Amino acid sequence: MARYCNNCGGKMDEDVAFCPECGQKVINDEQYNTSIQSINDDGQGMQQVTNFNTGHYDLTTNNNSNSNDISQPGKGFAIASLVLGIVSLLFIIFFPLVGLVVSIVGVVCATKAKSSGYNGGMQTAGFVCSLIGLIFNGLYFVACVACVGMFGAAGTLAH
């Protein structure tokens, strides 16, 4: 009976130690069942697992963590602040005025996420990126205005 690779799903013979398709080390059924049993024993891992060396597997998690749940209060604002912070960093050179607005909205979203009770890494990263974007977009905007003002003043002095 043929087995299938855990990594790529490629078909392989029973006696091989490595997958001929991807080179992944093949675990035998005893190693596989031992590792699955240790996952099942802690109550946080898999609920149902069938041997995928035979080509069929079904993994159902039994994890009560809501870390990936968007319905957490403030998580949407945290995501928005991170996206806006990254976008504000992209606008530094070419569109500093737009970058200023985007970074201000990013800081507000990060603050709203924190006040809603979300204190995850996404909120912190969004706040930091937005704050850096605010500082650099502001400096670049002031520098552009100063350059335009200097060129305008130099133009009037030349006449």
What does this structure look like?
By secondary structure, this protein is mainly alpha-helical. The N and C termini lie far apart (92 Å). The protein has helices spanning 29-41, 75-90, 96-115, 121-158, and strands spanning 3-4, 11-12, 46-48, 60-61. The protein is built from 4 helices and 4 strands; from the N terminus they run ββαββααα. It has 2 domains: 3-61, no CATH class; 75-158. The strands form 2 sheets. A two-stranded antiparallel ribbon has the order 1-2. A two-stranded antiparallel ribbon has the order 3-4.
Brief overview, please?
It contains four helices and four strands; from the N terminus they run ββαββααα. It has helices at 29-41, 75-90, 96-115, 121-158; strands spanning 3-4, 11-12, 46-48, 60-61.
How many distinct beta strands? 4
* Spatial shape: elongated
Helix content: 40-55%
Distance between the termini: 92 Å
Give the spatial strand order of the biggest sheet.
Answer: 1-2
> How many structural domains does the protein architecture include?
2
What attributes does this structure have?
single chain, 159 residues, 4 helices, 55% helix, 6% strand, elongated
Layout of SSEs?
Elements (H helix, E strand, L loop, with lengths): L2 E2 L6 E2 L16 H13 L4 E3 L11 E2 L13 H16 L5 H20 L5 H38 L1
Helix pairs in contact: 2-3, 2-4, 3-4
